[in-house]
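Posting for a labmate who doesn't have an account.
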Amino acid sequence: MSTKTALQGLRNWLDSQIVGQPHLTDRLLTALIADGHLLVEGAPGLAKTKAIKTLSEGIEGDFHRIQFTPDLLPSDVTGTDIYRPENGTFEFQAGPIFHNLVLADEINRAPAKVQSALLEAMAERQISVGRSTYKLPPLFLVMATQNPIEQEGTYPLPEAQLDRFLMHVRVDFPDATAEKEILRLSRLEASAVAQKPAISDVVTQEAIFAARAEALATHMADPVEEYIVQLTDATRNPAKYGDDLAKWLEFGVSPRATISLDRCSRAHAFMQGKDYVSPDDVQAVVHDVFRHRLILTFEAEASGQTPDGIIDELVQRVAVV
């Protein structure tokens, strides 16, 4: 079975289990193939936790959920050295971060020390305890969630940490048709006789690594690469594309955004079964890649501008070479 076929089967299975959230499941797989981390923002009850937990059942890997709270300590995430009196030595006890898929639930409720420990894990694929450094598994993906409704007792993520996330995905409520399907699926899962259908072929880690290599090797013509560079440059030099953009954007995106847009575009093309990257692939992922990296001016916020609206303007004004 080819890697594309295996991943397509995983995608179909995810869509059958996570009803009404195709964008979330698509972005989860994109992050898995692009080897990055995901920040998901949405109201409670929109299957954010279920999505990554279900993904862990469809691939060869383990899953752990960390509930972030204001009293959480870095050692609660990374692990700590435990004293063994029988031999008079310290032994490292690994924390929940040492799993393949990690859900950082309500990440903005954790204080800065915990966020910095998670930042090292995400960026360096390692954690430090005392003088020792420990490598994380080769297959490692963090999906962090934020609740946009309740902000009391939260610690907003700094821009530097937001930049570490490959994409920032917003999850909305399902439509009425999907809501009816959710009811049906929920009744089946609650039934004593019903069993959750298992995926026919679990995707191995080797297949995931092979998919990453294939996605990176997907052909990208020079004009498409130039288009990606021009989109990122437009956020840093918005005056070239309009005085209004210059008034709205205080800081543009970092070079990480260029790299992320390239990798996500390749992963998107790969998931669509294509052997080349087109401008459509770039435009399909640019909102999720740029959304959390743009810093708007006070004037933009006062006039009701949003990052998504500004990205729409950038897409319209930056020409495909």
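Reply:
Got it, the structure tokens are right above this. The chain has a mean pLDDT of 88.
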